[in-house]
Design brief:
Distance between the termini: 54 Å
CATH architecture of the largest domain: Alpha-Beta Barrel
Order of helices and strands: HEHEHHEHEHEHHEHEEHH
Shape: globular
Number of domains: 2
CATH class of the largest domain: Alpha Beta
Bound molecules: 3-methyl-2-oxobutanoic acid
Structural class: alpha/beta
């Protein structure tokens, strides 16, 4: 299985890192079969699995439950589990306890949290101090949508650009081993990736990050929305209802089950 050193070496050697989300046994299994480098059990599960309109209602128990299932499907893949909204904001004690639960109960290898301001850096340091590897997340951080005023590209203005770049440097110093960059201009993704020595994984951050991540349902064309940075590699949103409709039609027309699907059919 990959580990934190593998990813460091991949950046050093210029090998792109692939991260894909998974949330349950089948998605974990398929993503592992596709030989991706890292699975992320993201809090995006709130939207693509649980049908919430954002990620804010996702709980620690939700992430533990889905990480366990993904782990059963992907026994040999490095798994990062997202720390949900408010699970690392209150006290360092609670932060460490919650991070540890994702490892001990969920079976994750590392945790991810959003933001780069001083309180987040403290949280990163506290978790790393417990020997738990941390992935940080900057740019368009979905847990902050209310504070950001919606899903907007971050870092377009000069001042914001510099703040995100500074946060990236501080995150490396705080001990995170990887940084997800979401919804930022390509130039900022490039500058951060060239400035810090830990690998950067982009989603809507252009071509120059050390790796890319996409949500499973987006790759397969199953999600309701299609942001600019998403490429559909399949259209399961058409294949799935069409297949179920076909089954339903066969039943109604008496075509299913036919002989081949029946034990000892009456001749
Ligand atoms: O929750 C998630 O899936 C994520 C990715 C979009 C990076 O944080």
């Amino acid at each position: 299985m990959n580990n934190v050193n593998t990813f460091k070496k991949m950046k050093k050697d210029g090998h792109k890192i692939v991260m894909v989300t998974a949330y349950d046994y089948p998605s974990g299994k398929y993503v592992q079969e596709a030989e991706v480098d890292i699975i992320l059990v993201g809090d995006s599960l709130g939207m693509v699995i649980l049908g919430y309109e954002d990620t804010l209602k996702v709980t620690l128990d939700d992430i533990i439950h889905h990480t366990r299932a993904a782990r059963r499907g992907a026994d040999d893949t490095f798994i990062v589990a997202d720390m949900p909204f408010m699970s690392y904001h209150l006290s360092l004690e609670e932060t460490k306890e919650n991070a540890a639960m994702l490892i001990t109960q969920g079976g994750a290898n590392a945790v991810k949290l959003e933001g780069g301001k001083p309180s987040r850096l403290e949280a990163i340091r506290a978790i790393v101090d417990c020997e738990i590897p941390v992935v940080a997340h900057l740019g368009l951080t979905p847990q902050s949508i209310n504070a950001l005023g919606g899903y907007r590209v971050q870092g377009k203005k000069k001042e914001q650009f510099s703040t995100i770049l500074e946060h990236a440097k501080e995150i490396e110093k705080a001990g995170a081993f990887m940084l997800v960059l979401e919804g930022i201009p390509e130039e900022l993704g490039k500058q951060i990736s060239e400035t810090i020595s830990i690998p950067t994984i982009g989603i809507g951050a252009g071509r120059y990050t050390d790796g890319q991540v996409l949500v499973y349902h987006d790759i397969l064309g199953m999600a309701d929305l299609k942001p600019k940075f998403v490429k559909h590699y399949a259209q399961l949103n058409q294949v799935i209802p069409a297949s179920i409709k076909h089954f339903s039609k066969d039943v109604k027309e008496g075509k299913f089950p036919s002989d081949e699907y029946i034990y000892n059919p009456i001749k």
